[in-house]
Here is the input.
Amino acid sequence: MLVDYLKNRHGWHTWIAKPGVVPPDGRPDITLSGTVVAFGVEAVPGFGRTKLTVTSQIQVKALHAGDQESVALKLDNTEIQWGFWFERGNLEALVNTTVRKNMEQFMSHVTVDGRSLRMAPH
Here is the structure.
């Protein structure tokens, strides 16, 4: 999902690395890696309504190949939605919204500097 997000929203040339496969354009400028620290989905029924909650905690690291500098961020997000009925499609949409907001949070903290990522000035 991150690859598609960076490609479609920011115009980056992206691809998913696979062991033993050389990138299409040679060595990548930036390698992104990450860890899902926590990811929770909960549907709690109530009288006449259901509370859907998606919580995520993700660590993302961007390594610049040229100078080996890196940017690391911990992204936390919780999304809540109320509905009359529990519908799987609503929960799937909330999960997608949570992941998209994590990526937007990541991109708001970094800036593209030439062919590398740097922490954005705040």
About this structure: The mean pLDDT is 83. The first helix runs from residue 2 to 10.
